[in-house]
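Query structure, 269 tokens:
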């Protein structure tokens, strides 16, 4: 009886340590969902650096801002709403070219996340994710399969498979693209509040909704650091591109940036 009680207390401690309302990765989603009746606000800031469509005459600096409100409808289903903004800066690298910048509202997004298997009680956690985005002449649909596993109170493992459909309407014509993406990450908890990890990302862009023509692929790998408390948490990830095709000096510069970093800050209430 005492042994059973001890095991129960230890298990409860582990589940409490691995909170369901914090993210250990910047680019990889876990299968955890927000508990029923809980709210969370997230502020996203993503910085990307590269060359616009591979044009070496300019350096491009992109700042993406996302504000998210998430609510736990049930212990298995959460819903979210996003506001999306972007600051795009072009810096001339040669004489005769001019710098320019633009700040735009990038539309609204919604999110549905449904957990099929709990990573704390099952051999692996499994969740389905759907995110539509509307921005006037541009629309996107994003589908994700989320896998994750909490190994005791130290390790968090996660992997995602992603398919995106994109439509852009301009001057009576519609441009269609699709994206195939795979992400994976591992995080190790150093203390009850701090963890470090690594993330990897494969991102391929195609013309047409059914992967009709390959436009570019980028491979990204980099570290992350996470801090979590009872009321708020933050995750910071750095992802340089390490390989790509079509290749320009080893990486893809036409469809992908050479370097990305992301900070996500969350408040629970």
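Result returned for the query:
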């Amino acid at each position: 009886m005492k042994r059973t009680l001890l095991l129960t207390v230890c298990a409860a401690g582990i589940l409490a340590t691995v909170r369901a309302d914090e993210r250990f990765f910047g680019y990889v989603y876990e299968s955890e969902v927000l508990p029923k009746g809980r709210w969370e606000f997230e502020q996203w800031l993503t910085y990307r650096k590269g060359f616009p469509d591979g044009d070496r005459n300019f350096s491009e600096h992109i700042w993406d801002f996302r504000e998210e409100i998430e609510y736990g409808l049930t212990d298995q289903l959460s819903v979210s709403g996003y506001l999306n903004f972007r600051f795009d800066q072009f810096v001339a690298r040669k004489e005769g070219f001019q710098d320019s910048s633009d700040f735009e509202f990038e539309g609204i997004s919604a999110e549905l996340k449904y957990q099929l298997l709990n990573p704390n009680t099952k051999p692996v956690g499994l969740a389905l994710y759907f995110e539509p985005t509307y921005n006037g002449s541009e629309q996107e649909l994003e589908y994700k399969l989320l896998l994750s596993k909490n190994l005791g109170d130290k390790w968090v493992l996660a992997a995602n498979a992603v398919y995106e459909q994109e439509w852009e309407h301009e001057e009576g014509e519609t441009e269609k693209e699709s994206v195939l993406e795979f992400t994976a990450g591992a995080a190790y908890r150093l203390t009850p509040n701090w963890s470090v990890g690594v993330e990897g990302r494969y991102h391929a862009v195609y013309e047409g909704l059914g992967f009709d023509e390959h436009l570019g692929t980028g491979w990204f790998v980099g570290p992350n650091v996470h801090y979590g408390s009872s009321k708020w948490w933050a995750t910071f990830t750095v992802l340089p591109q390490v390989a790509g095709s079509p290749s320009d000096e080893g990486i893809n510069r036409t469809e992908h940036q050479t370097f990305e970093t992301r900070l996500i800050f969350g408040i629970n209430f």
